[in-house]
TrEMBL record:
Alphabetical GO biological process terms: Mo-molybdopterin cofactor biosynthetic process
Domain of life per record: Bacteria
Full protein name: MoaE protein
InterPro entries: MoaE_sf, Mopterin_biosynth_MoaE
Taxonomic lineage of the native organism: Bacteria, Bacillati, Bacillota, Clostridia, Eubacteriales
Amino acid sequence: MNNETTAVTSPTEMNNAQRHNVPSIEQWLKEAKQQTDADQCGMYLFHNGVVRGTAKAQVRHGENSPRVTGMQFSFDQKKVDAAVQRVKKMPGIFHVRAWLNSGTLQVGDDLMLLLVGGDIRPHVVDALQALLDELKSICVKEQEHYE
């Protein structure tokens, strides 16, 4: 398994100027492919979560909601690190990397980037889904702002 550390910025280190310094997925892929176990990876899967203009209640439950203008977003660093470590232990997974934004974000801003690399598609898809589910349900706090 890869010993790469989680690429996550803590909310206390983040300010508005840093908020838009989103990592390069091209650089992440380049670095992943240079790892010693990269020859065991047959797939890399990337997730880019962004602030959308439609409310979660509208998208998920069809509720009539005002337009979203932004979001307050934060996360628990220890929980994120634990989630990444759990996913790294899943079958066939050799590379996991996560970056999460924080602060007051606008529609279109990046919330998180995730990269998972592994041997075969089912392992990689399952690992990315598990990581995303845990991050969204346990590790982050989101508060939508409306018009």
